[in-house]
Design goal:
The structure is a single chain. The protein is α/β, with parallel strands linked by helices. It has 2 domains: 2-33; 37-134, 3-Layer(aba) Sandwich (Oxidized Rhodanese, domain 1). The chain contains 7 helices and 5 strands. Strands 1-5-4-2-3 form a 5-stranded parallel beta sheet. β2, α4 and β3 (74-75) form a beta-alpha-beta unit. It is elongated, with a radius of gyration of 19 Å. The termini are far apart.
Length: 143
């Protein structure tokens, strides 16, 4: 323990970096837990679609969407999502909506915007399409 304390004292930059990373992890964990936007696993997405009539909304590019997508997924073009134009989804406001992007990062931003626009039950597929295909779950393609 004394060596550890001596190391911390002798390397203030490394110590500050470690403390900063540790605090960032704690803050992000708390933000995720308190957020109204839930992060769903592929299995949870399947349960939500099958049991609560959830709707999958894919926000990837048109090319990516046509190449491979979750079966029955709706497409919200990324340019509309960036402009907060959710008019094509208005009729789905009362249903659970699960947003899907390539890796699960950009969908969180869109989910927050949708939540502020009055969509009550918005979730994000954790890991995006990468997690879906990585779990070996089915996709459909345009012919």
């Amino acid at each position: 323990m004394e060596q550890f304390i001596a190391f911390l004292g002798n390397h203030p930059m490394l110590t500050a970096a470690w403390v900063g990373i540790f605090l960032a992890i704690i803050v992000m964990t708390i933000r995720i837990k308190l957020s109204p936007i839930k992060q769903l696993s592929p299995q949870e997405l399947t349960f939500l679609v099958n049991r609560q009539d959830g709707v999958v909304v894919d926000i990837r590019t048109e090319k990516e969407f046509k190449a491979a997508r979750i079966i029955d997924a709706k497409h919200l073009p990324s340019d509309k999502a960036k402009k907060d134009d959710f008019s094509t989804l208005e009729k789905l406001k009362d249903k659970p909506i699960i947003l899907v992007c390539a890796a699960g990062v950009s969908a969180s931003n869109v989910a927050n915007k949708m939540s502020k626009s009055g969509f009550g039950n918005v979730s994000v597929l954790k890991g995006g399409m990468g997690a879906w295909t990585g779990a070996g779950l089915p996709v459909t393609k345009n012919k």
